[in-house]
Amino acid sequence: MVRTRIPLTATAVLLVTTLLLQAQAGGQEFKGQVKIGMHKVKLEANKIYEVILDSPKDLPLGVTAQGIQLNHQFTPDFRGQKIYCMPSQAGDFNFFVSPGFGVGNFTTYDYVLKIKGMALAEKPLLQESGKWTGQDPIYKQGGAHYKDYKIELKGGRLYIIDLVKGGPNLDPYLYLEGPTGMVVAQDDDSGGDLNARIIYSPPQDGEFRIIATTLGKSTGDFTLTVRQAE
Question: Three-class SS of residue 184?
């Protein structure tokens, strides 16, 4: 009679598989503890806010929000990012600070969350009502009809560019080209209700080009507005 030796590793795999099957058949229950900071913040309507999270540089804490869109903008060197939000109506919003992926959730972390409000200039820098038509050129990215607008922006200032649809079947999309013609920012739905919004602070003065387009070759009315934070 020949005895077959089963390697120890294979035996362990069989035992683990059996235990898992038994656990799944009888139901499973897990208990844990996660430390997440929640902060209720009162925000005003149509005011721009910068969200600043101070934490140890080697600790990947992140911030999210409930009921409001957070706009992330990378710094010119792409080594960091700034976070902005702009509520369409006043109210209390919940902001959450939590560890990033792969960070232990059983440790208490120190951080400071700052919400800095900035007013918008009363008069827009640019406000245009337009209409996409089948005769408009096709943009090199996205493959849809577009209209373009040139504008002078100041380095270090904060600008809010909104592209709002004029009909229910439109999905506006924004591109912002820098002085060299490269795309420095783009957005799809940050303005809410499929409207596009770019929040951007140029590193230096220059002439920029706003590309107002859509997802798909849609045609119809739109409104483009550029405002500056004070």
Answer: strand
Q: Max CA-CA distance within the chain?
A: 95
Q: Which of 60, 86, 118 is the last residue of a domain?
A: 118
Q: Are residues 216 and 131 in the same domain?
A: yes
Task: Supply 106's token pair.
Answer: 């059983």
Q: Mark whether 218 and 134 lie in a shared domain.
A: yes
Model confidence band, residue 134 (pLDDT cutoffs 50, 70, 90): very high
Predicted TM-score (pTM) of this structure: 0.75
Domain that holds residue 47: 37-118
Q: Between 21 and 73, whose confidence is greater?
A: 73
> Do 105 and 131 fall into the same domain?
no
77 exposure class (CB count in 10 Å sphere: 0-12, 13-18, 19+): exposed
- The type of residue at 224 is L
Residue with tokens 């099957």: 21
Better-predicted residue by pLDDT, 35 or 129: 129
Please state, in angstroms and rounded to a whole number, the distance separating the CA atoms of residues 137 and 134.
8
What six digits make up the tokens of 23? 């656990």
Residue 12 tokens read as: 């362990």
Residue 80 lies in a domain: yes
* Residue 6 domain flag: no
